[in-house]
Amino acid sequence: MENRMTLEEEQARKGKTYKMLLWFGMISICMIFAGLTSGFIVSKKRPDWVADFNMPNSLIISTIIIILSSLTYYFAKKSIKKGLNSTGMIFLITTLVLGILFVFFQFNGFSELYSMQLVPTGPSSTVSVSFLYAFVIVHVAHLFGGLISLFTVIYNHYKQKYNPAQTLGIELSAMYWHFMDFIWVYLFLFFYFFK
Predict the structure, then answer these.
(1) What is the pLDDT of residue 163?
(2) Which is the CATH superfamily of the domain at 2-194?
(3) How far apart (Å, rounded) are the C-alpha atoms in residues 184 and 186?
(4) Within 13 Å, how many C-alpha atoms sit on residue 187's CB side?
(5) Mean pLDDT by 10 residues, the chain (195 residues)
(6) Distance CA 95, CA 98 (A)
(7) What does pTM read for this prediction?
(8) CA gap 189, 192 in Å, rounded
(9) More exposed terminus of the chain, fewer Cβ within 10 Å: N or C?
């Protein structure tokens, strides 16, 4: 019994360490986006600023999708903690599909911008549109980390490495996923209201 307590304490300590490292990583990502949004605000005085374009429909759809993916990831974690492994797997796969759809609609948003002749570089580019591209590209680059962690969680869950008492991998991945969802909603609202 004493050895088991030591093992549980070791797992708890390991979990706290991993969560702290993840928090440091997420804070550094916040700093990247804080820098981008600060640059965006400072650049509003430039003569090539375009404020009267409509946000592409694909970016609006992707925002709804990423919010839904947060919900499905939450239900996946909750199901696995209750020992409902099949339900948890369905929610994990749904989250993965929604994540892939999010990326698809983000890039589709680029197509919509191009069709409106709003490009990030070149003589016809504007600083506001360039920032929108930067927001999307940097966010999607970080979201790929979330997709990789989600693939890992699905694989580990398939191999039955998680149970109601051992969900650290899912918790870490879900924390990062929810964080990236929050970042996108923040960026979308920021750009939508401050363009």
Answers:
(1) 82
(2) Cytochrome c oxidase, subunit III, four-helix bundle (1.20.120.80)
(3) 5
(4) 31
(5) 60 81 90 87 74 81 95 95 92 96 91 79 76 85 91 92 85 93 90 74
(6) 5
(7) 0.84
(8) 5
(9) N
